[in-house]
């Protein structure tokens, strides 16, 4: 998924929730679960890798 977003020229933050308990708690608050990855785009939370959602939601910067 990171490569997919990088190819679109998207600026993002990759957070290792396995090394940061506070980040894991924030992820759980956002998504209601601990499955990864979690993507938040304009307030919409998506759990798992969904390339169709990413393509619809994130315009390419190239």
The level-1 CATH class: Alpha Beta
Q: Report the structural category.
A: alpha+beta
**Largest beta sheet: strand ordering:** 1-2
Shape estimate: globular
Number of strands: 2
Order of helices and strands: HHEEH
What do we call the CATH homologous superfamily? Answer: Glutaredoxin
- Indicate the multimeric state: single chain
Task: Give the biggest beta sheet.
Answer: 2 strands, antiparallel
What count of structural domains?
1
List the helices and strands and how they pair.
Elements: H1 2-7, H2 21-31, E1 38-41, E2 44-47, H3 51-57
Antiparallel strand pairs: 1-2
List keywords for this structure.
single chain, 62 residues, alpha+beta, Glutaredoxin, two-stranded antiparallel ribbon, globular
Give a structural overview.
This protein has 62 residues and is α+β, with helices and mostly antiparallel strands. It has a single domain, classed as 3-Layer(aba) Sandwich (Glutaredoxin), CATH 3.40.30. The chain has helices at 2-7, 21-31, 51-57; strands at 38-41, 44-47. It has a two-stranded antiparallel sheet with strand order 1-2. The mean pLDDT is 88.
Structure summary:
The protein is α+β, with helices and mostly antiparallel strands. The protein contains three helices and two strands; from the N terminus they run H-H-E-E-H.
